[in-house]
Amino acid sequence: MGAITLAAKYMIVAQIEIGGNADRSDIVGALFSQTEGILGREMDLRDLQLTGRIGRIEVDIVKKDERTIAKIYVPSNLDRYETALVAAMLEAVERVGPYPAKLSVLEIRDLREEKRKRVLERARQLVKLIEQEVLPDTKEILEQLKEEVAEKEIIEYGPERLPAGPEVDKADTVIIVEGRADVVNLVKHGFRNVIALEGISKGVPKTVIELSKRKTTIAFVDGDRGGEMVLSELLKVAHVDYIAKAPPGKEVEQLTGKEINKALKNKVSVNEYLAQQKRDSKEAAETRHEEGVVVEVQTPQSASVPAEVAKSIDELRGTLEAVLYDEEWREMARVPVRDLPDMLQKIERAHAILMDGIVTQRIVELSAGKGIKKIIAARVGPLTKLPEDLEIATFEQVAHG
Q: Running DSSP on this structure, what letter comes out for residue 106?
């Protein structure tokens, strides 16, 4: 087997049996040509290789007589789900040149795990070179023991197999964190009702959205810009009740038990958080105004809607959906709130939006660009610019207006 990309995380190992004589170039050519377009441009083997997410494909001919048997090695720097998808895609190869072929994936190796094993084995050897044994601090031993116990208690929850504490399903309150390391740290310090988002590049997991509908939820994020971005995406689609943050510049996975307790004790309601965001935006706008840049900070207005539409608000609560209406208040489209920005870029002649989510500045700008006159939502986020001909109101304002 040839050299692989140093940054590779995984190695896909496959075997191909071909009903005739074939060379390495024939096999590699078949891999590229017969997988092209199956999963779209983003997962095209040529593009993945050009961007370094798939390394050089190596082929070892094992047997070549009237038929050819070869091992194929594909180094991957994709995540485990994308790597598995590429591996499955390779099995679509059915011919090599004029000959029928069958490709089977044998295994997907975690190269990082293999490196860790080599490091550990070398460390064992080096320990023998230490002339004087240095005993670790008792506190360090206890911390290591707690972490190992916590690791074993972590479960995989929901279809997305999200890292979670063992009591996430039983508890009335759930703590939502960013990643697995955060879950481990909280479980280590006694918080067993915790679940991780595991990234938001593909959106907030549906499992978390569903949990937020039926449990009291606390979003516990890192004290940096990344934490703010995660929180912003989470608030768009999930029913979060409280927000807690790690101290500025710190991550949840780094916190001590005392810091975790303090952060959770100082949690604020979503309304308090949004109000603070609004105050911060106003202060920033006033500062920019003093520096010569005028920025308006406006508050939502009330919006009048037909009685039958107002009655449908209760039915919309908890669905995380948005409904678009025309001027006659006839329903034009119904989409998940997370897909609303895309829909607003496509739809024409819409008049109003009813949405079980948070109105953001982006929604306002897209709506104004499409000539929409009314937005009625579950919540309204901090808005720095509100068009004069766009009315915005919350469900409560419409229900009690």
A: E
